[in-house]
Design brief:
The chain has 250 residues and is of the alpha/beta class. The chain has 8 helices and 9 strands. It has one domain. The longest helix has 16 residues. The protein is globular. The two termini are 28 Å apart.
């Protein structure tokens, strides 16, 4: 997650999901995987970004899903200061049940960054991981500047192994669903701690396609996750086409 994305249509679906999880009684940890954009994404002369991001703002017709949330995010997206800090300060999620980890991730300091995250988010039943891109890929090594855009396998595993459920954001690559999901299932199930755990998937297709993989630590968490997703897709969120449940594995 980067400051420049704050308040866009992606955040609307994201916060809608997190609010749904909170409504099921979860205590929630949010690890933003906050990253500073690499210099390669800026114009050398002007310093501006080469590609306009966070441009998919919330259409007023979607306010019916959650008007207070949509209004707050739209205000942030149209302000001169778009930032993760403003998302937290807006108290969009129940402050008594939500813990944020917003330290900036770096290649050199990543191990300490992760250990600090584990310590900060230890009290939470479910932890949301919000990288720019998603789960790590073979084409990006750990020493690459782009590695901060991904969740490493062992980072996800560390939360699961100590009994926490995990919600993982993953940007959908340009692959057909019937190809992508089986491949991703095999990839995810190869991570220590994921095997034999229930996995649910919520897809938010507006702007760009965003998948949220929710890995339940136990059967009781799985029931609550299923309830949260079911209420979203059967209500205005689903009826407006903002989200749908995917069958994991195709």
């Amino acid at each position: 997650m980067q400051d420049r994305y704050a308040g866009d249509i992606g955040d609307f679906g994201k916060f809608g999901l997190l609010k749904a999880l909170l409504s099921e009684g979860f205590s929630l940890g949010v690890n933003w995987y906050k990253a500073d954009p690499p210099e390669s994404e800026r114009d050398r002369d002007t310093g501006t970004f080469l590609h306009e991001d966070g441009k998919h703002k919330i259409n007023p017709k979607y306010f019916v899903c959650d008007e207070p949330l949509a209004g707050a995010l739209r205000e942030i997206s149209e302000s001169d200061v778009r930032s993760i800090a403003r998302l937290e300060q807006a108290a969009l999620l129940n402050p008594g049940k939500t813990v944020y980890y917003h330290e900036v991730i770096s290649v050199a300091g990543r191990y300490q960054w992760h250990n600090n995250a584990l310590e900060t988010l230890a009290p939470c039943e479910i932890v949301f991981l919000d990288p720019d891109n998603g789960l790590s890929v073979k084409s990006v090594g750990k020493g690459s500047a782009k590695s901060v855009k991904y969740v490493w396998d062992e980072e996800l595993s560390d939360y699961l192994k100590r009994g926490q459920s995990v919600a993982l954001y993953n940007h959908r690559p340009r692959k057909k669903l019937e190809t992508f999901f089986p491949e991703f299932k095999e990839r995810l199930l190869g991570i220590e701690g994921v095997q034999n755990k229930p996995v649910s998937v919520l897809t938010c297709p507006k702007g760009t396609v965003r998948d949220y993989f929710l890995i339940a630590a136990n059967a009781e968490h799985a029931i609550r996750i299923s309830s949260a997703l079911g209420k979203m897709v059967s209500g205005p969120w689903g009826k407006m086409g903002l989200c749908r449940i995917e069958k994991f594995g195709g």
